[in-house]
Amino acid sequence: MRPVIEVAGLRKTYGSGPTAVHALRGLDLTVSTGDYLAIMGASGSGKSTLLNLIGCLDVPTEGRYRLDGIDVGSLNERQLSLLRNRKIGFVFQSYNLVPRTTALSNVELPLVYAGVGRRERRERALAALELVGLTDRAGHRPTELSGGQQQRVAVARALVNSPAIVLADEPTGNLDSASTSDMLAVFDRLNALGRTIVVITHEDEVTRHAARVVRVSDGRIVSDTYSAWAVR
Ligand SMILES: Nc1ncnc2c1ncn2[C@@H]1O[C@H](COP(=O)(O)OP(=O)(O)OP(=O)(O)O)[C@@H](O)[C@H]1O
Ligand SMILES: [Mg+2]
Q1: Whose CA is nearest to atom 3 of ligand 1?
Q2: At a CB cut-off of 8 Å and minimum separation 6, what does 17 contact?
Q3: CB under 8 Å to 90, separation ≥6 — which residues?
Q4: Ligand 1: residues whose CB is within 6 Å?
Q5: Of all protein residues, whose CA lies closest to atom 28 belonging to ligand 1?
Q6: Whose CA is nearest to atom 12 of ligand 1?
């Protein structure tokens, strides 16, 4: 399989001098197209830092990163945000939806930034909402939806521009077990459709769905295993 994420010697240091925090201390990771990867590790071990670098939300202090064959280090701010918009779908623990507008408009948002026309926007956003099982809630605002439904809107938004990879930082952290199962079913479906998924989690139920589990400790990968038990 073609590698979609290639990270080598990645370091991230926040601040400098005696108060510097070495969040990543030389990390190598290759993720193939269609992989379903769970990242685990203690609080403060560097998981979100890693995901933010993979998602082009931040730049490393040192090291190399190729996203879908593109050397990210050589890009300027504008090129980086273009790449992010085209290749990455992000899901956060706190949903991060725009509160005063409908589910449909929230899902359309990345397409607005990408300059897609109104009609195509609507069609693609509805298709994404259908994929997460929320067609009947398209006209509702986030406050009129449950936490699990809001998170599925966030997933639809992450998918709507057909990103090469979906990155999720503790997406089920605020969800009850029924909503967690719904969410995981959506990720399974996406992965079956060929999407690459990288998800940070503390929950065994989530790692059971992933094909591969990477453990991070103190800014380094300490184990990387393929699961024979992945629920698929
Ligand atoms: N913007 C920042 N400025 C300074 N230090 C930071 C910043 N972001 C993260 N850190 C530090 O870097 C280290 C790694 O943080 P990170 O958020 O990547 O951990 P994490 O593994 O995601 O933890 P958690 O499970 O609690 O979310 C921590 O020591 C944290 O305090
Ligand atoms: Mg984190």
Answers
A1: 14
A2: none
A3: 55, 57, 158, 166, 167, 168, 169
A4: 14-15, 21, 23, 41, 43-49
A5: 44
A6: 23
Nearest ligand 1 atom to alpha carbon 49: 18
Supply the pTM of this predicted model: 0.94
Residue type at 93? Q
CATH 3.30.70.3270 fits 32-59+81-226, yes or no: no
- pLDDT tens-digit map of 54-103: 999 999 999 999 999 999 999 999 999 999 988 999 999 899 999 999 99
Nearest CA to ligand 1 atom 31: 44
Extents of the domains making up the chain: 32-59+81-226
pLDDT tens-place string over residues 123-135: 999 999 999 999 9
Classify 231 as helix, strand or coil.
coil
Q: Which atom of ligand 1 is nearest to the CA of 45?
A: 21
- Please, are residues 21 and 181 in contact by the beta-carbon 8 Å criterion? no
Q: Ligand 1, residue 50: give the atom nearest the CA.
A: 18
Distance 127 CA to ligand 1 centre (A): 35
Task: Please give the DSSP secondary-structure letter assigned to residue 69.
Answer: T
User: What number of other Cβ atoms are within 10 A of residue 133's Cβ?
Assistant: 15
Cβ-Cβ contacts under 8 Å for 115 (sequence gap 6 or more): none
Ligand closest to Cα of 40 equals: 1
